[in-house]
Amino acid sequence: MQQTPGSIGYVELIYALQNRISYGSVQNAAGEFVRADVPSVTAAAAAAAGAMPKDFRVSITNAPGAGVYPISSFTWLLLYEIRRTERRRR
User: What is the dihedral of CA 56, 73, 61, 59, to 10 degrees?
Assistant: First the structure.
């Protein structure tokens, strides 16, 4: 990106912070220009947390509210639980 004038790229927030990559603000659903940081991404997740469906199908992209960073997302980890009866069979 640095070698191409006017180019735009996207990386994960923590990667940008750890590597001191410069980035700008993005306009959210409330009309504010917000820079990505841990509180603004957390605000996006909090906006969806109260309405989380049982099947966990939710998007926090362009979440409503003040101070919300609009290009936010979750990372999910699904784990298989081995029950005691299954352990005995093995």
Answer: -10
Asked if residue 5 belongs to a domain, the reply is no
Report the helix count and the strand count for the chain, using DSSP H and E.
Answer: 3, 2
56 part of a folded domain: yes
Q: Residue 24 corresponds to which tokens in the numbers above?
A: 């700008």
Q: Find out whether 45 and 73 touch, Cβ atoms under 8 Å.
A: no
User: Which residues face 58 on adjacent strands?
Assistant: none
Answer yes or no: is 42 within a domain.
yes
* pLDDT tens by residue, 11-30: 888 898 999 988 889 999 99
